[in-house]
Amino acid sequence: MKAAVLGQSGAQLQIEDRPRPQPRAGEVLIRVHACGVCHGDLMVLRGEFPFARYPIVPGHEVTGQVESVGDRVERIKPGTWVGLSALYSSCGRCQQCLRGEEFLCPQMQFTGVTKDGGYQEFMLADAAFVTPLPSSLDPVEAAPLMCAGLTVFVGLRHAAFQPGHRVAVIGLGGLGQMGVLYARAMGGRVAVLSTSADKEAEARELGAERFINTRQHSPSAELMAWEGGANIILATAPSVDSMTAAISGLAPEGTMSVLGAGPGEIRVLPLELIMGRRRIMGSPAGSRADLRAALEFAAAHGIRARVKRFSLDAAGEALAEMENGRLRGRAVLVMD
Fold first, then answer.
1. Is the pLDDT of residue 329 over 90?
2. What is the pLDDT of residues 211-236, one digit of tens each?
3. Pair (228, 124) in one structural domain
């Protein structure tokens, strides 16, 4: 089978011919159909995850069909269409796991970072951590839901989203698009903040009622003019300058949910947080229960990622397009 392998940080992906693995007890073998290309994969390539293990097969937005199962696997049968997120496994015993926050587990294994991921034709997975796909979801369009969709869904939930809330989305890349779609489907009103004026038509098409060109206007002033500010800011672009510029546009008791990881520091005056009871929170992906909820919500509300398909051999090209800002929507590697 073919696999795209990153030998070390800063290296180029190499296509290798590997033997097809065999599932051990508690594992399933997935015939990968599609794997989304995520900013996290770029972070693996750059060496920005200190816990990454090389050589590694990247990819944590996986959809496919169970090819075979190991001993003691009863819940998942061969032929089942499943998805796998960044949460490869967790310990199941720590305080975070016991309260259902598995992604905060200190022993969590990260698909495509500490365990080989979906940039390959077949992959092993812990049977307890794969999720059956709703039948109405196309596996290619569903792949980005495993991380991008899950991340914005969880970010909105933990920011105490309520229908009618004003949600400002910083950036309209693949993650930002999912933020607009989920916020709108959940009953929110959306503004998009972007440095690219040519994104306005796309933002409006996705359902945004406002578009703020941050090169021409103050994001915080424009947001405060939006009926008193944003209840939630989803910071999807990995730009701390954009986050810093927007934070003052939060309404009282508003939350900035930081989803995009970039270098530098978010700067804020403590008095702005105190007097408005505002907060800044980071939000990673989510648990198995979160993933099931995000997929079911997408299936029920017609949320579909806008994808650009690449072959496995073109995985390096997909990463380059993302890194250079040329990509529109989400890149997805399709195996057949």
1. no
2. 999 999 999 999 999 999 999 999 99
3. no
Looking at the predicted structure, is the pLDDT value of residue 308 above 80? yes
In the chain, how many domains are there?
2
Parent domain of 14: 2-147+286-334
C-beta neighbour count of 87 within 10 angstroms: 27
| Reported confidence tier of residue 283, pLDDT bands at 50, 70, 90 | very high
CATH code (residue 177): 3.40.50.720
Specify which residues 279 forms β-bridges with. 255
Q: Is the peptide bond before 50 cis (omega within 30 degrees of 0)?
A: no
Report whether 180 contacts 189 (CB < 8 A): no
Which residue is listed with tokens 């403590």? 270
From the list 38, 33, 120, the residue with the least C-alpha distance to 79 is 33
Distance between CA 45 and CA 149 in Å, rounded? 22
Tell me the pLDDT of the chain averaged across its residues: 96
Residues 305 and 246 in one domain: no
Strands (E), the chain: 2-5, 14-17, 27-37, 61-69, 81-84, 87-89, 109-110, 122-126, 131-132, 166-170, 189-194, 210-213, 230-235, 250-258, 279-282, 307-310, 330-334
Tokens of 295: 């997929």
Q: Is the pLDDT at 336 greater than 80, yes or no?
A: no
